[in-house]
Specification:
alpha/beta; Rossmann fold; disordered C terminus
Length: 323
């Protein structure tokens, strides 16, 4: 029986500082980063996703970024397979794997025994939900999911109609929430796990979110979205329903003013951060670190490195010596 792979996960809401902290931790501990962000997988979508630049990555290898085009199909099951493979390969190279991101379902898919088969398909049910979305709006269908499976709803965007309907379909077919069904019968992944969660005062986080949106606008978010539309990517794509892209695409199509689009983007991002908090707060394994209690993010990184050395690093060294 193989010894478990040490895995450090750094999670938390958008704009809390995960990128800067994780890069610093990786540099201190000799690590490489596997992204757990459902929007970073898309090419050509950089500004609106706050994708770390090569400069921000500071030489640390990052995986699960820029792997598909915006119109390609992608799934949590495929992410699970690819991310776990990268984690294993990082460890085989003698590096510490870091799983970093704010997409709760992606994180859970990696660290828990989730499996993605057996629920089946009900085309009639799907058509019924699509009709309801067309008549009453996507939010009405999303509210159905909130009622029967709030755990899954907390990590799915209300406008991601495909995933919302699939989660409802699983409940319809099995009588159990997807968040339960995914856990059954899966083989527990071979990780020795430490999960650190970054948090801060909610109002301060909202101020950071608004500042980030303003910076995105300065960096050229409107031009990025226009470029995607010019490439022929439909605003109805799942990727184009992501934060920043849906709001700006609506503006470019004459459905709102720019000020309205910016207002909606800030509001929707705040709401998204609240859902992320709700999702992660349910996990008792997370060691929470209040970023607001530290002077700089580098101090936060030092604290995570200290905790990691006490839990994972000694184990990692002894495992490497046995190889």
């Amino acid at each position: 029986m193989e010894a478990p792979i040490p895995l450090l996960a750094i999670v938390g809401p958008t704009a809390v500082g995960k990128t800067a902290v994780s890069v610093e931790v990786a540099q201190r501990l000799g690590g490489e980063i596997v992204s757990a962000d459902s929007m970073l997988v898309y090419r050509y979508m950089d500004i609106g996703t706050a994708k770390p630049t090569m400069e921000e990555r500071r030489g640390i290898p990052h995986y699960m970024i820029d792997i598909i085009d915006p119109d390609e199909q992608y799934s949590v099951a495929l992410y699970q397979t690819q991310a776990r493979r990268h984690i294993s390969e990082i460890w085989q190279r003698g590096k510490l794997p870091l799983l970093v991101g704010g997409t709760g379902l992606y994180v859970r898919a990696v660290i828990e025994p989730y499996h993605f088969t057996g629920a089946g398909v009900d085309e009639d049910f799907r058509r019924q939900m699509l009709r309801e979305a067309a008549e009453k709006g996507a939010l009405a269908v999303y509210q159905r999911l909130v009622q029967v499976d709030p755990e899954t709803a907390a990590c799915v965007h209300p406008n991601n109609l495909k995933r919302v309907i699939r989660a409802l379909e699983v409940y319809h077919l099995t009588g159990r929430p997807m968040s339960w069904a995914l856990r059954e019968e899966g083989k527990r992944p071979p990780y020795r796990l430490l999960v650190c969660g970054l948090t801060m005062d909610r109002q301060k986080l909202y101020e950071r979110i608004e500042a980030r949106v303003d910076k995105m606008m300065e960096m050229g978010l409107v031009g990025e979205v226009q470029g995607l539309l010019d490439r022929g990517y439909s605003p109805r794509l799942i990727s184009m329903q992501g934060l920043g892209y849906k709001e700006i695409a609506a503006y470019l199509r004459g459905l709102s003013t720019l000020d309205e689009a910016i207002y909606l983007l800030k509001r929707n991002t705040r709401r998204f951060a609240k859902r992320q908090f709700t999702w992660f707060k349910r996990d008792p394994r997370i060691n929470w670190i209040n970023v607001g209690q530290y002077t700089t993010l580098m101090e936060v990184a030092r604290e995570i490195a200290r905790r990691t050395e006490g839990v994972l690093i000694d184990t990692s060294k002894s495992m490497l010596e046995k190889k």
